[in-house]
């Protein structure tokens, strides 16, 4: 049911639901991690929604274990953020 609700959620709501549902692999995507996620239709729908909403850069079948997806969270460029903080002081 969550996968059908997902397109209507903003990022904060999405994170809250992921935490409540104990979907830690999906939650870790928001921390720029690359979890292995079991390949099934529900997980594919979630990953497609995340990719469409730019929460992840991509997902693909894991090279070492074809029964899992490997998903890639967005990267945050910390150097730019640090420079912005420095100039705002």
What are the SSEs and their pairings?
Elements lengths: L1 H4 L5 H10 L3 H4 L8 E3 L2 H12 L3 E6 L6 E6 L4 H11 L1
Antiparallel strand pairs: 1-3, 2-3
The residue-averaged pLDDT reads: 81
Euclidean distance between termini CA atoms: 46 Å
Q: Please tell me how large the radius of gyration is.
A: 15 Å
Structural class: alpha+beta
Percentage of helical residues? Answer: 40-55%
Structure description:
The protein has a three-stranded antiparallel sheet, with helices on one face. The chain has one domain. The chain is globular and about 35 Å long. It is built from five helices and three strands. The protein is of the alpha+beta class and about 90 residues long. It has helices spanning about 1-5, 10-20, 25, 40-50, 80-89; strands spanning about 35-40, 55-60, 70-75. Strand 2 and strand 3 form a beta hairpin. The model is unreliable at about 75-89 (pLDDT under 50).
